[in-house]
């Protein structure tokens, strides 16, 4: 006797499992922001469970695209996890020079470890997470059939400002185009991005209507002027 569920029923069950795992992973990732939490050693397990289950889901339902809501929550998990990792690496004490009785070999090893940690931190810098945030916002707007608001624009411009300041102050980045790169996001009438790609969706989000385009440029300029004192021409 075949006890397997009908294909349609099995799909519903598997989607429910995936949705629950994603939800649990998002909550666990956010718990890492709580410095008093004692669950840090377990917080990564739900994310690993999502990573393990996704290939299974795709192999069982290779011809099926997960609902837009689940795809959005997958993006939300990706951004949440990376952003929390950035927060943790920013909060950690990385200077090994605070140790006592450091000999030559210990110092070399400490410097090497510091360099690796600094590179790992840079890979999760705000500049690196910014595209994830914008793509997530674009997908959400598309899903809800809404447009970006003034409050969101202020949030996004503030994110860009923080990303720029972090590059200058924390990483001592001396690129001459750093300010322009941090704030280059906006509507491009000549955008050549592939349709439905992240860049295409972000561009569509910023170009919802003429008033939104003008408001965004105004808010963005205000934030550019606010962080310009940090800018150094090399």
Task: Write structural notes for this entry.
By secondary structure, the chain is mainly alpha-helical. It has ten helices and no strands. The protein starts with 6 loop residues before the first helix and ends in a 7-residue tail after the last helix. About 13% of the residues have low confidence.
Q: What is the general shape?
A: globular
How many E strands?
A: 0
Number of helices: 10
Strand content: under 5%
Give the ordered list of helices and strands.
HHHHHHHHHH
Structural class: mainly alpha
Distance between the termini: 76 Å
Q: Radius of gyration, rounded?
A: 22 Å
Poorly predicted regions are 92-122
In helices, the fraction of residues equals 55-70%
In short:
By secondary structure, the protein is mostly helical. The chain has helices at residues 7-31, 40-43, 45-60, 68-91, 104-123, 126-144, 150-170, 178-182, 198-206, 210-227. Helix 1 packs parallel to helix 4, helix 4 runs antiparallel to helix 6 (126-144) and helix 6 (126-144) packs across helix 9.
């Amino acid at each position: 006797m075949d006890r397997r569920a009908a294909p349609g029923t099995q799909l519903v069950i598997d989607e429910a499992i995936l949705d629950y795992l994603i939800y649990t992973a998002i909550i666990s990732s956010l718990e890492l922001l709580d410095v008093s939490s004692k669950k840090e050693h377990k917080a990564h397990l739900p994310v690993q469970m999502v990573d393990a289950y996704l290939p299974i889901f795709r192999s069982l339902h290779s011809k099926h695209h997960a609902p837009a809501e689940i795809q959005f929550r997958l993006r939300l998990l990706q951004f949440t996890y990376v952003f929390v990792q950035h927060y943790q690496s920013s909060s950690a004490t990385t200077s090994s020079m605070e140790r006592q009785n450091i000999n030559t070999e210990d110092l070399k090893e400490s410097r090497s470890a510091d360099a690796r940690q600094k590179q790992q931190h840079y890979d999760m810098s705000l500049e690196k997470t910014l595209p994830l945030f914008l793509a997530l916002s674009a997908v959400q707007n598309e899903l809800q059939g809404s447009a970006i608001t003034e409050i969101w624009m202020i949030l996004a411009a503030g994110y860009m400002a923080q990303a720029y300041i972090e590059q200058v102050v924390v990483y001592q980045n001396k690129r001459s185009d750093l300010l322009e790169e941090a704030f280059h996001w906006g509507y491009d009438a000549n955008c050549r991005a592939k349709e439905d790609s992240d860049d295409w969706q972000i561009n569509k989000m910023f170009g919802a209507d003429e008033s939104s385009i003008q408001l965004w440029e105004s808010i963005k300029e205000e934030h550019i002027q606010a962080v310009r004192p940090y800018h150094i021409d090399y």
